[in-house]
Design brief:
CATH topology: Rossmann fold
Radius of gyration: 17 Å
Helix content: 40-55%
Structural class: alpha/beta
Strand content: 5-15%
Length: 260
Amino acid sequence: MKTLEAKVAMVSGGADGIGRAVVERYIREGAKVAVLDINESKLESLKAAYPEELITVHGDVTCYEDNARAVADTVAAFGKLDIFVGNAALFDYFVPLRKLAPEQLEQSFDKLFHVNVLGYMNGVRAAMAELKRNQGAVVLTVSNSGFYPGGGGILYVTAKHAVVGLIKQLAYEMAPDVRVNGVSPGATDTEMKSVDGISDRAQPLNHINGFRDNAANAVPLKRIASPEDHAAFYVVLASNEQSPMTTGCVIHSDGGWVAR
């Protein structure tokens, strides 16, 4: 039997990168999946690839109503919701505090934290009743920036540290009915975009000159991760059979950053 046979998951930020890898792995493991994402063209591509196994919802994770609509659509399509995966995120192009103009700071902070932190809260809050009803699980994407400096700028690193706290607090609040955990990927070959206007040099993460080599050389395993390299951990943490006593924890999938 497949690990997630007969389970239903909702993945925010699931149309590309790590999110899409999780969606595709969940489908292979037998789950039905709903994907909430702001990128319509990538949602269409995903739906074309998996017309029977998933539904797509175009929406913004910073809007609670869009999250609630995604949950309602999921239950309408598949009858229930067992798993919520929060994955949508913005980067900050490594910008330090000293390079953020004072008049720009509040706007940049609001935009990044609304996606990277409030987006997760919105998703969990919208899914909470269904997850409790089904003894479900929450899995949130962290980052090695949730534990160490230097993997982003002041906004991204601070926000990812906040996600670690969010996981611990939600695990405490939602027990014993719902388990809440996280996966902490290291540098990954994805096109994660930065907050608009944060730097005139900003570009998608894996378009940065030397990004892949620098990321590989920074960790003991000496290679940059693909999105698929992380997906198995999202399966383990979503399964009440494979991780029944695990909550409030974060699994590191970062090439050995902690061993440096």
